[in-house]
Amino acid sequence: MKRILFGAILICAVSFANAQSTTFKPFRADFGFGYAIPSGTGSKGGLAVSFEPKYAVNDNISLGLRFEAAITARGAIDKNGNAVSGSAKASGSYLLTGDYYLSNMNFRPFVGLGTGIYSIASVSVSVDSTNTTETVAGGTKFGFAPRAGFEVGHFRMAMEYNIAGKSGDINNNYLAIKLGFFIGGGRMKK
Length: 190
Prior knowledge:
Elements: H1 2-15, E1 27-38, E2 43-56, E3 61-77, E4 84-101, E5 107-127, E6 132-152, E7 155-162, E8 166-167, E9 170-171, E10 174-184
Antiparallel strand pairs: 1-2, 1-10, 2-3, 3-4, 4-5, 5-6, 6-7, 7-10, 8-9
C-alpha cells in the first residue's frame, strides 16, 4: 500500500513538474473548521478541523495533503426505553487530495477527491436492564473522501463525505461541512 501511494505521488510530481497556474499563485494553505455528522442511527454530530497545503498545477487543478481531526458522537434509546447505546469516535486523516475548479472567476465552484489513511479510536457503550457492554476499537484504515464546494476570494466552503469503513460495530464514516479560508494562492498581479 505504501509503495502504491509513493508511486502515485512520484508520478504526479514528475508529470506536473513544469506545469503551473498562470492566473493564481501556485502555493497556498487551507484552514477549515466545521460540523462532522457520523453515519448510522442516533447520529449526534461533532467537530472537524483541517489543514491542507496545496499546489496549483494549472488554473483548474490543485493537488494537496489534507490533515484533519474529527470527533463525533451518537446515542440511541430503544422503543421501550429499556436500553441505551452510544459511541464516541476520534479520527485523524492524512489524505492526498485533488480539486478541479469549474471556473476561474471570483466565485469558484469545485469538485474533488482525497484518498489516504484514517487513524481511528472509538468506544461504544450499551446499557440495558441486565448488563452493560463496552467496546473499544481503533486502528488505521485506508479510505477516501469525495467533496464539493466553492471559494469566493480567500474564503472556502466545502462538504466532504469521509469513507473509512467500520471498526468492529462502529461505523467510521462521516460527513463534514466546513467553512474556512486560505493563505496564499490568490490572483497574480498582471
